[in-house]
User: Fold this.
Amino acid sequence: MEGARILILEDDPFEAEELQLSLTERGYHVVSVVDNAKDCMEQIRGGEIDLIIIDIVLEGDLDGIDIAEMVSRFYNTPFIYLTAHDSDELLTRAEKTRPVAYLLKPYRIKELDFLIRAGLERWKLEQRLQREKAKAEADLWQLATHDPLTQLPNRDLFINRLERSIRKARRANTHIGLLFIDLDHFKEINDSFGHFVGDQILQSVARHLEEHTRADDTVARLGGDEFTVIIDELDDFQNIGIFGQKLIDSFNKPFSAGKLQFTLNTSIGISLYPEDGTNPATLLRNADAAMYRAKAEGRSNFQFYTADMTERAKARVHIESELRVALEEKQFVLHFQPQINIETNQVIGAEALIRWHHPEKGLVPPLEFIPIAEKTGQIVAIGKWVLETACTKLALWQQQGIYPGKISVNLSQRQISRPAFVDMIRDVLQKTQCDPNCLELEITESLLISNPERIERELQELRDLGFSIAIDDFGTGYSSLGYLKKFPINRLKIDRTFIRDIPEDSNDQAISRAIIALSSSLDLEVIAEGVENDAQKQFLRENGCLMAQGFYYSKPLPEQEFLKYLEEHSSE
Ligand code: C2E
Ligand code: MG
Ligand code: MG
Assistant:
């Protein structure tokens, strides 16, 4: 090999120089001469070395064979041994390290030159064979585990992956969703247009499914027009219904095969681990059975294995799609729940609470749709509407000389984690010309922990604008004293679960007292939520919490009723 780059490991400087000279004369490039393991490794790491010529007997603890062993553990570089010691023991040791040659001194340079050329040729050939073998093995694996038409995992690999997912889920105590997807009327395409067209469609469907799932989800083709998707780490089974519905909707666009275009529909059956089965065979059978029910239900829909799950998931998908029009159709309204000074009975403010006037179901309480809107992201638009509406009302009331005190608005975590959150609030203020000093924003404890630096900065910006900040449902989260001190907060709202069983429950009494003491030591205001009776009011008064909100005073009221309440309870 002309110009091969050679590293010499030799501790006799005279021999090294002689060798270097004769190699250079013969057209080799001697990269360096080293005499110990460390330098040898460094040279190999630093540059492309084609061959190492190693003198076996070296000064020091390690001989050339030891160093060669070390090198081959990290690098794939061929080497030749040179030695003046003709011992059987050395030869046996050397052989085990698989050198390309072994040469006894004194040798003629012609011999060495021949061994280098022949050795490197053979080495290159071996390397190529190894690469080809590895590729052939990989091809074989791909062939054995993937569907040749779509390149998706085949049934065997799918079962294997599902087993793995089940093991993981069992250990982590999580859930898995298995979707069984069947194309509706695919057989007709095959029969009318031939298998070539059918195959093209299956390939497009495979790509489509891959695009509409997360990278970690396994999409597989079981055969024919049947596909499966494994969804790991499912946090809420209803989400899988939403996912299934999205998948069905995504089939709304036509699939093409050459110049032909086809509209396809899918029916999806869903089984859940561990509810519907704890092994691959059962989960698959149950997802398959659910898919047949989906077909029987008129196709283009999804079914869970158990009817009850289907119903719940569909109700949720339903709410999600109805929520999409609720804003446009102005189906939301705000109610206002007065907040009261316990001692004077005066209204000191109100909490704005959203209500949904559903065209068929009537008034839907927020707990039935806010969590869904949070999951789907619709809360961002809904939350903006709440803020805008509260600000508009407040500005209007002020124009009319009505001063209800501070109006508080609930913010959800998803809203605040948007990058442009504070800008959104500024826009609303600008648009409605509302005075932020009359507004309080309620956030939850978990929000403070999620991204403390950013939240602290944003809360400070909101405070600088004039808003007050309250921690809602206080006591149910995880915030520590340290956290509370760190953030610019004005008020704690004692969660109503701690008020509910007062005066009977002494634990709740102790917790409420602790929260009141905490707020006083941190110089924060404190208000109790969910006050329903006189005993609770007395307890709060005795313990120094002088603000309350709850049915004892008033339920959340529609705007006009709230204004009437305000008039009846104003200070004059
Ligand atoms: P929250 O912010 O803790 O609101 C207080 C809830 O307690 C309200 O329920 C209110 O009607 C209820 N409540 C008030 N006094 C009493 C009482 O004496 N006894 C009992 N049992 N309940 C009382 P609501 O209106 O159903 O709201 C529930 C939750 O929905 C709210 O809890 C809040 O987390 C969320 N929510 C409501 N409106 C909005 C909104 O505009 N945006 C966001 N992001 N969340 C909202
Ligand atoms: Mg609240
Ligand atoms: Mg609350």
Summary: The mean pLDDT is 91. Residues 5-133 form a domain with the Rossmann fold fold (CATH 3.40.50.2300). The chain is about 50% helix and 20% strand.
